[in-house]
Amino acid sequence: MACTTILVKKNASYDGSTMIARNDDSGAGHYMPKKFVVVHPEEKT
């Protein structure tokens, strides 16, 4: 089964938001939890 990822950069969205969307398909019905971390530019070292 295929997975799908949609990426929208700030110049392509109506309000300047950056968006990421992804789905994970599982033919066997086993799904693993995902972890999403946001790193703000001022927090980068």
How would you describe the overall organization of this protein?
By secondary structure, the protein is mainly β. The protein contains no helices and two strands. The protein has strands at 4-8, 19-23. It has a two-stranded antiparallel ribbon with strand order 1-2. It is flat and about 40 Å long. 0% of the residues are buried. The mean pLDDT is 82.
Briefly say what this structure is.
This protein is mainly beta and 45 residues long.
Topology:
Elements: E1 4-8, E2 19-23
Q: How many DSSP-defined strands? A: 2
Structural class: mainly beta
Taken as a percent bin, the fraction of beta residues is: 15-25%
Mean pLDDT across the residues is 82
CA-atom Rg in angstroms: 15 Å
Please tell me what the overall shape is. Answer: flat
Fraction in helix? under 10%
Biggest beta sheet attributes: 2 strands, antiparallel
Unreliable residue stretches: none
Number of helices: 0
Terminal CA distance reads: 38 Å
**Major β-sheet strand ordering:** 1-2
Helix and strand string, N-terminal first? Answer: EE
List keywords for this structure.
45 residues, mainly beta, two-stranded antiparallel sheet, 2 strands
